[in-house]
C-alpha cells in the first residue's frame, strides 16, 4: 500500500501537536476523565502523548538498535507541576519540535529499532502521525471540541491499523485478535465523502490464517458506511456505531466482535 511522503508525516505531526496544544490552552478541565480512555484524565493523556514524542525522538536521534526504556528519556513524564496548562503546553510544544526535527533529519530510511519489524525512521514518522491524530480526537472529545482530520491522513490511519492487526495476528499468538481467525467472513468500510481520486473503501477478509485486506468496493458480511472522519473514529473505537452519519449494513455482530478484539496497540 502506498504510504504518504515522509515530509507529509512530519508536517502532520507538527500540525497535530499544535492542535493538541490548543486543547490544552482552551480552558478545558485538565482533570476531566477522557471518555474514550477512561483510565486517563485529559492531562494524563497529554503527558502520555508528549512522552511518546520524546521517546520516538530519542530512538530516532540515537539510531537505536533496541528499545529504550521510558525512564531513560529526559523529561518523559512532563513538567513537575500538575494542573498548569502553561507548563504543559510549553513541554508539549518542545516535545513536538524535537520529535519532528529528529524525524526530518533522519529521513525515512535511517535504520532505527521498531516494534513491528519495520526498522527505519519512516515507520516512526507514520506511527506517530496516527498516534497523535487519534489521541487528539480523544482530547477533543474530552474537552467537547470539534474534530476533523485531513482525508489522506484518515485513509492512511485505517491502512496502518489494518497492518497492525495483521502483524499482531502473525506475531502475538495469544492476542485477542486470534478470535478473528475464522473463514469466509468479511468487513467492508465505505467512506461516503472522500475527495475525488482518493480510494476510501476497504474490504477486510477474515481467514483462519489471519486477515487479508485491500482497498476497493466489494460486498462483505457487514459494511460500515459514513463520513471519513466519523468512520475513522468508529473504527478506532472512539465513536459508537450508532453515531450520527454512520450506517451498519449486514451482520452487526461481526463488526462488534472486530472492535472488541482489536483493542491492542
Report on this structure:
- The chain is of the alpha+beta class.
- It is 46% helix and 12% strand.
- The protein has 7 helices and 7 strands; from the N terminus they run αββααααββββαβα.
- The strands form 2 sheets. It has a 5-stranded mixed sheet with strand order 5-4-3-6-7.
- A hairpin with a 2-residue loop joins β1 and β2.
- The mean pLDDT is 95.
By oligomeric state, this entry counts as single chain
**Secondary structure: helix percent:** 40-55%
Order of helices and strands: HEEHHHHEEEEHEH
Strand order of the largest sheet: 5-4-3-6-7
Element layout with pairings:
Elements: H1 6-24, E1 33-34, E2 37-41, H2 42-61, H3 85-106, H4 121-143, H5 151-171, E3 185-191, E4 201-206, E5 212-215, E6 222-226, H6 228-235, E7 247-250, H7 252-261
Parallel strand pairs: 3-6
Antiparallel strand pairs: 1-2, 3-4, 4-5, 6-7
Helix pairs in contact: 1-3, 1-4, 2-3, 2-4, 4-5, 5-6
